[in-house]
Each structure stands twice: as structure tokens, then as C-alpha cells.
Amino acid sequence: MPSTDQAVSLITPPAAINTTEGQLEPFEWYATMRSNEPVRFDEDRQTWDVFRYETVDRILRDPETFASDLTLAAVQSPQIGSDETTTMLRADPPAHERLRGFVNDRFQPGAIGEYRDRIETRTEELLDDLERDTTFDLVESFAYPLPVTIIAELLDIPTENRAQFKAWSDALIARPTEPTNGARERNAHRRYEAWTEMRSFFGELLEERHGESRSDLVALAANADDLTRDERIGFCILLLIAGNVTTTNLITNAIWCFAEEGVLDAVQSGEFDRKRAIDEVLRYRSPVQLLRRVATTDLTLGGKQIAAGDRVTPWIGSANRDSDRFDDPSKFVPSRHPNPHLAFGRGIHYCLGAPLARIEADVAIGRLLDRFETIEPTLSTLSPRPTFHGLTELQCTVE
To answer: How many Cβ atoms from other residues are within 10 Å of residue 216's Cβ?
Structure first.
């Protein structure tokens, strides 16, 4: 196992973009890497970074050569908790099919479409609250509570606990705020506490719902006979976190992009198709900028020799700006079509919640733009969210 410093470096951004500006705007660095070092080894982070669309796409489509199970790496990742609970996110075939298969049908577009009325109702309730003020933080008041409320309802857990869910999620994705051992230890302690509390919370719920005839996702996991207790808990934790963090960023990034690129009024008026505009947000400012894989065999990638056990980091955010795949990739084009972005991944790990995220974003942004005549986000002082590509807040003034 690596030292604490080595372990922390594995979740630290590359030095070139490990700044506020770098996290908000990493795209020039991506372009430089695509041109000069499309595959390069980062000594500090002990990983191969991959930047071009074709190569990133190849990695995501080939789970046999590029495994998701990070425990196969020669240099290990730091663990969130004291165990190594397996989720579909970090599983390879055949375990992946077992961990995902029992719930896959519930997240197909047809099945998720049945929740649209519920999403619309929750959206209108949040907008009713927003109308009380002419200024609000879009993240705190809208982009976060909507997806976490929806996923909580799908899990049938108390939505009034969403502040606790946010605290857990923030702790699990946080990075040390200072490059000191003390800051790293405090960060690791918060992550461990959050992980332990979530395990206890879902462990009790799963026990209560085992054997019960219910339709919620906790009950579905509790009664999945081919899952272990840890796998059931891991499923619930993954769903709660993944079900809110990335969609929060998508909603926020959409308003950020529309305002920054001067197309908010055009999207609001219907000049641009809203679904296509949201798809362009997914390409232009992907909520997930990178994924992590492990090479399972010696191979050549981009002219570089990669050994079995080497960590590989495919940069989705860079692939989505590759001029070999997209025309004018650095330009935000709300009407772009087709738009084969990799924001939801590729292959067997294609995002389970993609249909839900699309509906939530479409409803949220559509109703927000319908409710207010003008929306003016404050773009002068932006702060990036750790780990994912988004904002900690986005102050908006509305009429």
C-alpha cells in the first residue's frame, strides 16, 4: 500500500489544473495534452492520463483490458471506509451483471418516464419557495434538493433528511483543502465518519425491509437473493450519491453555460431545442470529467507501453472537446446534432441513471425558465466543486 501522501495524490487533480481556475476551466490544458501528450504518465498521481476521444472511447468499451476494479492496481486507491464494499461502479464481469442486473429494468427510459409527473410536482414546489425572494443560490435552493428528493423517494427514505444526505455526499467526495498531513487526516476522518454513518443507516433499513412486499429500491435490494449484505448497502450508498451529485451539477452547469454563452433567452424562448441544449451542456461541461481504470495486461496505448496493474485515467472532459470528433469543439453550440459525447460513459458501465438525469434536467430547467421572466446568474465569482465538474453555489437574481 502507498504512503498517506501517495494515496492522497491519487485523488488530487493534476498539478496543471489543481487551482480554482484550473478546475473551472481545464479545457486549454486538455487541448495541450491532446496535441502534445495524448497519453502520458503522471508521476505524482501514479496514473496514465488519456485525452483523445478515440482512445478514451476504446478504454470505456473494453472492460476486459481496462478493469473498473481498482484493487487490481499495483498502486492502490485510498478507501473511503474501512472495507472494500463492491458496487457496480467498481465491478467487472461477471460480478457487474449481477450487481446491476437486478435493478437495470427500473432505470430504463420507459420505466423512468413514469416518474415524470412526480418530478414535475417536486420541481413546482421548489419553485414556489424560490418565488419568495428575488435572489437565491441555485445550487442550495434548487439544483441540489430536486434530484436528492427524487432519489430519496425512489429509495423511500425520509426526504426531510436531505441536509444529512448532502453532508454525507460532500464528505465522501471532498478533497483536502490544504496540502498538509493534518488537513489530509481531517479529510480522511470525515470521509470515514460519513461512510460509517451511511452504512449504519442503510444497513438498518435493509434489515427492516427484508421479506417485505414493497416497490421501493431499498426493498428491491433487500430482497435480491444473489447480493451480499455489503453489496446491498453499497448499492444504496452509490444510488444516493450518484443520484444527486451529478444531476445537481448538470442543472447548475446548464444555467452557467446558457448565461455565459449568451443563449439563456434563446433557450427560454424556444429558439433552441431545450433537450439538445442540455445535451450540449453534457458535452461542453461534463459533470464527470474523468474515470479510473486499471490495465489487466501489458499493452501499447498511444505509442506508450502500459503494464498490467497500471492505473489509467480516461479524461471524458477532454474527449468531449476533441476536434477529431466534434466540429468547433471549444464552441458551445446549443443546436449541435448529432452529439456523441461521453458524458454518461460507454459500454457496460454506461450510466444507469442517465434516463433519470435527462428527465430531471429537462423538467427542472424548463420549469425554471418558464417561471421567471429573467434569470441573471452571478458569474464573476465562481467556486468549483471538488472531484466533479460543477459549482459550490450559483447566485441568481430573478424577476
So the answer is: 16
* Residue range 37-83, pLDDT digits in tens: 999 999 999 999 999 999 999 999 999 999 999 999 986 655 444 34
How far out from the chain centre does Cα 197 lie? 22
Write the pLDDT tens digit of every residue in 107-147: 999 999 999 999 999 999 999 999 999 999 999 999 999 99
pTM, 2 dp: 0.93
Q: Please say whether the dihedral angle defined by the alpha carbons of residues 51, 324, 57 and 384, taken in this order, is positive or negative.
A: positive
The dihedral built from the CA positions of residue 86, 91, 93 and 97, taken in this order, carries a sign that is: positive
- How far CA 124 is from CA of 135, 181, 296, 371, in Å, comes to 17, 46, 48, 9
| Helical axes 145-155 vs 354-371, angle rounded to 10° | 140
Residue spans of beta strands (DSSP E) within the chain: 39-42, 47-50, 66-67, 135-137, 293-295, 299-301, 304-306, 311-314, 375-377, 395-398
Q: How many CA atoms lie within 13 A of 177 on its CB side?
A: 5
Side-chain-side CA neighbours of 225 within 13 Å: the count stands at: 1
Q: Extract the C-alpha cell encoding 46.
A: 501514479
What string of DSSP letters covers 116-179? HHHHHHHHHHHHHHHTT-SEEEHIIIIITHHHHHHHHHHHT--GGGHHHHHHHHHHHH---SSS
DSSP secondary structure code for residue 261 in this structure: T
Interhelix angle for 181-209 vs 162-173, to 10°?
A: 130
Residue 220 and residue 200: Cα distance in Å, rounded? 18
Residues 6+ apart with CB under 8 A from 70: 76, 77, 90, 292, 294, 311
Q: Which amino acid would we find at residue 315?
A: W
